[in-house]
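quick q for whoever's on today - can somebody do inverse folding on this one?? i tried earlier but teh output was garbage lol. tokens:
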């Protein structure tokens, strides 16, 4: 029969073992070699707007977790916290409220109240840049869109801002948020008969560097050609909801006006006007078109928008065809 331990002996054992357990626990929470505290998270850049409202600036922030949803909530909280450096403004500490967000796959949608639209255009772009650049660092957040009371955010021209990614906003060292760049575009429009494509080279097109070249191409196609012998292919009432690129596929999301065709052109000419023009860009091989996010539709009852389209050279009008 095993002898029972006396209360005195038990007390002595606890006095010896308890400190050892505490030390072991502390060693798991700290770096025993150098005494530095180890957190479970990692370092992110949180972007702010400077007081002059001319650029965005960043500060490092260490999260306490690596869980993507918790990291997202942490960064949103930081965007609404006035930084210790008073020359910076927290983008979510302005006179509007973030009502909530939805996160569906790679798409994050932030919903604001109506006061969001009361900001001036320059400040709004800066605030938007700070938010997008901060939150797009979260794992699996590739695209971000803004809504106001559940409706898509519109720009000053009345067009939907659409889906955004961090690379749409330049690394602002100064007043570069308002800079413009020039690009050469190769756009395809309809011939006179509306059954083939003709190429129009638009050189030195100036555009705001805070929108993507892909979106610029689509907007220029909607605007229509500027040379003789080329005719429009897309309903000019069409609004661009978003243009994004993933794995060299360009996803073009348009509103329902696209389905109404006021011009005498074939369905192939319209679809490949968009496709061939976008595939001219070096980062795009294929194009998918959707209407208000839906692809289970037929364009002019002949072309399924579930198709991912590739360049079609057979539709391009050559000099031989022009002379016939």
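ok took a stab at it. sequence:
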């Amino acid at each position: 029969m095993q002898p029972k331990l006396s209360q005195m002996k038990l007390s002595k054992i606890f006095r010896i073992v308890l400190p050892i357990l505490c030390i072991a626990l502390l060693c798991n929470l700290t770096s025993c070699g150098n005494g530095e505290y180890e957190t479970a998270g990692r370092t992110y850049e949180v972007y702010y707007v400077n007081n002059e409202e001319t650029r965005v600036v960043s500060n490092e922030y260490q999260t306490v977790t690596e869980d993507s949803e918790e990291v997202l909530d942490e960064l949103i909280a930081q965007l609404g916290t006035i930084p210790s450096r008073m020359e910076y403004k927290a983008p979510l500490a302005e006179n509007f409220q973030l009502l909530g967000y939805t996160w569906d796959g790679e798409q994050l949608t932030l919903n604001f109240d109506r006061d969001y639209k009361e900001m001036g255009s320059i400040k709004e772009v800066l605030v938007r840049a700070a938010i997008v650049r901060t939150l797009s660092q979260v794992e699996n957040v590739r695209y971000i869109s803004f809504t106001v009371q559940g409706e898509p955010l519109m720009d000053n021209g009345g067009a939907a801002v659409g889906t955004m990614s961090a690379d749409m906003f330049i690394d602002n060292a100064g007043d570069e948020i308002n800079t413009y760049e020039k690009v050469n575009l190769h756009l395809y429009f309809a011939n006179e008969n509306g059954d083939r494509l003709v190429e129009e080279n638009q050189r030195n097109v100036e555009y705001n560097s805070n929108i993507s070249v892909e979106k610029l191409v689509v907007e220029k196609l909607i605007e229509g050609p500027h040379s003789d012998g080329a005719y429009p292919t897309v309903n000019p009432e069409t609004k661009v909801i978003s243009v994004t690129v993933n794995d060299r596929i360009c996803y073009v999301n348009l509103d329902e006006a696209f389905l109404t065709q006021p011009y005498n052109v074939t369905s192939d000419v319209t679809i490949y006007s968009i496709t061939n023009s976008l595939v001219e860009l070096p980062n795009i091989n294929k194009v998918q078109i959707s209407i208000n996010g839906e692809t289970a539709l037929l364009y002019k009852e002949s072309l399924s928008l579930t198709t991912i389209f590739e360049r079609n050279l057979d539709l391009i009008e050559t000099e031989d065809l022009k002379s016939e």
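fwiw Residues 75 and 135 are 7 Å apart (CA to CA). also The first helix runs from residue 7 to 29. so keep that in mind when u check it
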